[in-house]
Write a structure and sequence with these properties.
Distance between the termini: 28 Å
Radius of gyration: 20 Å
Structural class: mainly alpha
Shape: elongated
Number of helices: 11
Largest sheet: none
Amino acid sequence: MPDNNLHSINKLQDDIKAAKWLSVFLPKEKRQQIKELETSLANMIHLIESFNKYFSDAGWCAYDSMNMPLMENAVKAYEAGGIDAGEQVLIQYYQTDVKDIMHWLKNKAKPFRERYELIKCAFDDHFAERYHASVPLFLIIIDGAVNDYTKSKGFFAEGTDVSAWDCLVGCGDGLTKLNEIIYVFLTIFLYLLKCPQSLILSALRAFCLCGKPHISRLIFLYFPCQSWLKSW
């Protein structure tokens, strides 16, 4: 299993191995349950490996609390229609359905819990498609949260090593690519702020509407990030 960095799956593997050692002392139905659990875990590992194989170059990666049906649907869409079809599944989820799990950010990571009111404001703007307002807030929040954790650098600072997140997410390469994509997005966004004042708002609105896929990636980033920060 190459993706040996997702803690929850590693623990399940260890538990199953221990249960198999003791299975000779268990009733037949319990031994069957262990076999079924082992098969389910193998299917889950295959799904995670496929997801990372298909999407890591585009800046998506599996993380320890990621929605399994979402991963499965994205993988199926990729296998049927390629990367664009697969990404549409992810983009749609992180543009709309993500509202059902945004409370995880408060419950699992102290840096996000301390900024939760701001996070709610950013999501309110996002769901209302006021991207010119939500994007800078999302960028500021995540950069500050990571800076609180590292005590030295924000997420977008030069030299920030996202490969250190491998302990809780499934693909360091995907995070590195995601960092690069969002950094370019941020650079262009900041450049637009130098436009004549009368054009700034129109330019930002147009840019954000065209950049919806990258906005979805920005929101996605919050969830592998909270997996990393929850150990703080």
